[in-house]
Specification:
Alpha-Beta Plaits; 6-stranded mixed β-sheet; alpha/beta; single chain; Udp-n-acetylmuramoylalanyl-d-glutamate--2,6- Diaminopimelate Ligase, Chain: A, domain 1; 5-stranded mixed β-sheet; 364 residues
């Protein structure tokens, strides 16, 4: 197994096209063809984490946060980013980051936080828009099933809890092959009419290349007639944040204790409790203030996230209670999820969770 195999596996779960425009997820250093001796999973990639990988015999690190966020203009060791990269490069350690794309992925960061809290009946808080497309193509009736099968295998036609979805209608295709054509049906320079099906399937935009490849490989025509439309439909399984419910409503005191116990918190910042039972919980791993309005609109009693600024706490306006548990604390459980995922996909090398506490924030 190579570094590229691990990259491919992570991008099956969290495609790079799902990352925010400011992000820098993906392979940050290392050769894609390098065989993997072991993978170390961490929330952050620091000098201490790289040294841990060296000590554990791991030559690849999969982190949530990218160590390189802005362009590097030098590698002189003047700061922790450059020193981390130098140490990794000197020891042939590949570094891969799965950041906002993993925030948005099904069973991503916010989902894992909800699981840690034992929440039920969950859904994505702000589903993606314009991440789905529709493919319409035309095929002879006797080849329609073969193309549908190939497209479904490539990932087209999945809608929520339903798979192999498509729509088709029959019609007549007309064409005239020229001298240079090599038609599978018809004769050069003679008009032809063929009974065809028009088939439509929805697919995730990031799979477009493989889906078109499957269409052309399975289609009998030399020139495949098709067109693609972008959709404004939301993709309910992919997006920002998560909202779910406690098994049973709690009062503020009980919920505060529950939150601390489940997440191992000594304390957390919060706005005023609203004096009503707490049942519906919105969550966003990391810095989630941008989702506060979504949480309020969804009827959340509490919104759990991190990195709220002072004035942003006012925005709750007694519609819900903000619980700022800290950036690290709201995301650290993703290490367990990545570890389980890669361990399930690879058995030829060790997949280890970093024991380094990379949280830069301490509490007195």
């Amino acid at each position: 197994m190579t570094v590229q195999d691990v990259c491919n596996s992570m991008e099956t779960w969290a495609p790079l096209s799902w990352q925010e425009s400011y992000d820098n997820a993906g392979l940050l250093c290392g050769s894609r063809s390098q065989p993997v001796s072991g993978v170390l999973i961490s929330l952050d990639c620091t000098e201490a984490v790289v040294q841990e990988a060296i000590n554990q015999g791991c030559n690849m690190i999969v982190a949530h946060h990218p160590i390189i966020f802005k362009g590097l203009k030098s590698l002189t060791g003047k700061d922790y980013v450059e020193r981390t990269m130098i140490l990794a490069i000197k020891n042939d350690i590949a570094i891969y980051a799965s950041h906002t794309n993993l925030d948005h992925a099904p069973q991503g960061v916010s989902y894992q936080l909800a699981q840690r809290l034992g929440l039920e009946q969950g859904r994505v808080l702000r589903p993606f828009k314009q991440a789905l497309k529709q493919l319409t193509y035309f095929v002879p009736t006797d080849a329609a099933e073969a193309t549908r099968t190939a497209l479904h295998a490539a990932g087209a036609g999945n809608i929520g809890n339903y798979t192999e979805c498509s729509f088709s209608q029959e019609g007549t295709g007309r064409f005239t092959p020229n001298d240079q054509a090599n038609p599978s049906i018809g004769t050069n320079n003679q008009a032809e009419e063929v009974t065809e099906e028009q088939i439509q399937v929805i697919y995730p935009a990031h799979l477009e290349s493989s889906i078109l490849k499957a269409l052309k490989a399975s289609h009998p025509y030399e020139e495949v007639a098709y067109y693609i439309q972008g959709l404004d439909n939301t993709w309910d399984e992919v997006g920002s944040g998560y909202i779910a419910e406690l098994p049973q409503a709690m009062d503020a005191t009980s919920f505060s204790t529950y939150l601390k116990e489940k997440l191992g918190l000594a304390h957390f910042r919060h706005t005023a409790w609203l004096g009503r039972p707490i049942k519906r919980i919105a969550l966003c791993g990391g810095a989630g203030s941008f989702l506060l309005a979504d949480a309020i609109k969804a009827g959340a009693d509490v919104f759990i996230s991190g990195d709220f600024k002072y004035h942003e706490f006012f925005d709750a306006e007694n519609h819900c209670t903000i619980c700022d548990i800290g950036h690290y604390e709201s995301e650290v459980m993703i290490k367990d999820a990545i570890h389980a995922y890669l361990s399930n996909n690879f058995s030829t090398f060790a997949v280890l969770k970093s024991m380094t506490n990379s949280n830069p924030v301490s509490y007195a």
